[in-house]
UniProtKB/TrEMBL annotation:
<feature type="domain" description="NADP-dependent oxidoreductase">
    <location>
        <begin position="15"/>
        <end position="313"/>
    </location>
</feature>
<dbReference type="GO" id="GO:0005829">
    <property type="term" value="C:cytosol"/>
</dbReference>
<dbReference type="InterPro" id="IPR023210">
    <property type="entry name" value="NADP_OxRdtase_dom"/>
</dbReference>
<feature type="region of interest" description="Disordered">
    <location>
        <begin position="312"/>
        <end position="333"/>
    </location>
</feature>
<dbReference type="InterPro" id="IPR036812">
    <property type="entry name" value="NAD(P)_OxRdtase_dom_sf"/>
</dbReference>
<protein>
    <submittedName>
        <fullName>Unannotated protein</fullName>
    </submittedName>
</protein>
<dbReference type="InterPro" id="IPR005399">
    <property type="entry name" value="K_chnl_volt-dep_bsu_KCNAB-rel"/>
</dbReference>
<comment type="similarity">
    <text>Belongs to the shaker potassium channel beta subunit family.</text>
</comment>
<dbReference type="GO" id="GO:0016491">
    <property type="term" value="F:oxidoreductase activity"/>
</dbReference>
<keyword id="KW-0560">Oxidoreductase</keyword>
<dbReference type="Pfam" id="PF00248">
    <property type="entry name" value="Aldo_ket_red"/>
</dbReference>
<keyword id="KW-0521">NADP</keyword>
Length: 333
């Protein structure tokens, strides 16, 4: 495993993070999830990412149990706030009330006294930005949170937040958690250049485009039984946009590229996002330990220019690059 600094901070994170978005508390049983976490630790992963909303708060509970007994200083624990976690009108969004209450609830579920990185899971169009930033700053000053970040914000939203933080002397954002893969490159035009300038690192999710870049989905074939595309609890709706024949045909062309590089297609996909120097860590999920052991081999891989060009040639014009695709829906809608 290799390690990188998170943005301009002094904290290091593992190049590959373990995320439990659609696995813990829903897709796999707690026992299997705990085995995956233990394997991640054995393989050198020290960074674990979750969110209060995952599996209706159950994902945090499972992760807390899986990390029980592990020396707290030896790993970095990330979680998020924004999406609904209950039926009440204030059980969502980025109001001071919901942020503080959600942080306290996450600490209990995760069985810890602090969160290494607390993130705004989306941009809240209804709450004054200063209110949200003030609450996050207070959590840092209270010792409950070490660093703060956001997920899926546009460059304009990031710039507005940094202006407020600087004007009030608040602690600054140090991380961005966007979707990023060889097929989804919307952060490259605006978010990455601003992040480089401001010392913000990317912790990217779905580097395998919900599994499409793993090569398991073949053109003209039905999705494999038990895969994400066939599991309604496991993100089948999100992956559907990539299951077009033209996409699967292009992805199939990556098989010889991966073989030439001595990698599996999954390893190639993860290694690709890690070639971006602004990426601090790539989040991977797993339903069994063998997937963890395979994917961690992407850490430290340096893809040569010819391999990068071959990937671009295979995918052609399919990758989405429109920066306007960074969208934050209204959590109360």
């Amino acid at each position: 495993m290799e390690y990188r600094r998170l943005g301009s901070t002094g904290m290091y994170v593992s190049e590959i993070s373990y995320g439990n978005w659609i696995t813990h508390g829903s897709q796999v049983e707690a026992e299997a999830a705990i085995k995956c976490v233990k394997t991640a630790l054995d393989e050198g992963i020290t960074t674990f990412d979750t969110a209060d909303v995952y599996a209706g708060t159950r994902a945090e509970v499972v992760l807390g149990k899986a990390l029980k007994g592990v020396r707290r200083e030896s790993y970095e624990l990330f979680t998020k706030v924004y999406w609904p976690t209950g039926p009440g009108k204030n059980d969502r969004g980025l109001s001071r009330k919901h942020i503080i209450e959600s942080c306290n609830a996450s600490l209990k579920r995760l069985k810890t006294d602090h969160i290494d990185l607390y993130q705004m899971h989306r941009f809240d169009v209804e709450t004054p930005l200063e209110e949200s930033l003030s609450a996050f700053d207070d959590l840092i000053r209270a010792g409950k949170v070490h660093y703060i970040g956001f997920s899926e914000w546009s460059a304009a939203q990031i710039a507005s937040a940094l202006t407020i933080q600087d004007a009030h002397g608040y602690n600054r954002f140090v991380s961005s958690q966007p979707q990023y893969s060889a097929l989804w490159r919307v952060i490259e035009a605006e978010v990455v250049p601003l992040s480089v300038k401001e010392g913000i690192g990317q912790i990217v999710w779905s580097p395998m485009a919900q599994g499409v870049l793993s090569g398991k989905y073949l053109p003209g074939k039905k999705a494999p039984a038990g895969s994400r595309a066939t599991d309604k609890k496991s993100g089948a709706g999100m992956i559907s946009e990539w299951l077009r024949e033209e996409v699967l045909t292009a992805v199939a062309k990556l098989a010889p590229v991966a073989k030439e590089a001595g990698l599996t297609m999954s390893q190639l996909a993860i290694a690709w996002v890690l070639q971006n120097p602004n990426v601090s860590s790539a989040i991977m999920g797993a339903t069994k330990p063998s997937q963890v052991r395979e994917n961690v081999k992407a850490a430290g891989v340096k893809l040569d220019p010819s391999t990068m060009r071959a990937i671009d040639t295979a995918l052609g014009k399919l990758p989405e690059k429109d920066p306007a695709k960074n969208e934050s829906p209204n959590p109360r809608a």
